[in-house]
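Running this now, will post back.
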Amino acid sequence: MDSRREFLKNSAMVGAALSASGTANLANAQDSRVQLPTPRALQLMSFFGLKYPIFQAPSNGAGPDLTASVSSAGAMGILRGTRLTPEDARKAVTIVRARTQRVFAVNYILAFEPDSLPAVLEAGAPALHFSWGLPTKEMISVMRSAGAKFGVQVASAIGAQSALDLGADYLVCQGIEAGGHVQSSTALYELLPKVLERAQSTPVLAAGGIGHGRKIREALLAGASGAMLGTRFVANARESRAPRVQESPYQVHRERNDHVGMLSGRVAGRYASLAAQLDSGALGGGWLSAGWPTAGRR
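Update: finished.
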């Protein structure tokens, strides 16, 4: 067990963000015009007490070992919370807190009810991360009462504004290049300037197609406060539920994407036509401003 945690601690951060780029220390990397980390990245790092402006994307493979290892290495580990029972979620948070003193977050896909949210807050989760929807005002009140921060993954400028209006502490701007259950329909660097314009001083992380230091550097120089990486961490996660991805992520890349696409259809199908109408302005933003209500609540 110790060797497993040591593997994750050493390989997750080094492999994911630093060594692959040839820029092993982001703090020392320089552009002819910009010193890295940028002021926006430093703001994010200071806000969460991070060593690196990097978030691990949530996934089914993001259990306590991976989350604690990423956080201990100085980035933001994000624990899966979606569809966990309150008991399992409480246990997972307790394990992470026992293994790291650094900040981590718990993720909820809001296409599903976040039934375990009260349990993770009671267990001491310091931050919450949301995608495929917006937390309700009641949820935010409970989070703030517990002293927790929260962020929201967004896929449009309207979505960014809605999250900001709720007081989100950070945003994740997801491009269509992302893996898993892709919320976005817009290329990352087409969407990022629009989200940054809305966000102003609120930190914005870039997500989608970022797997090594060169891509992190590109995101920072484009104005992002940090980068969110998913597949690169899954490839290092020995606790992953997808061992073939861990052993040979590139060999099975196409097959895995086809499979994930089918799974994503089950989660996202109910939203697809509404999202298209929202993007066209046909819904006037009402669905999004209402918090992306699920079927039966619209």
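The domain at 2-289 is CATH 3.20.20.70 (TIM Barrel). More later if anyone needs it.
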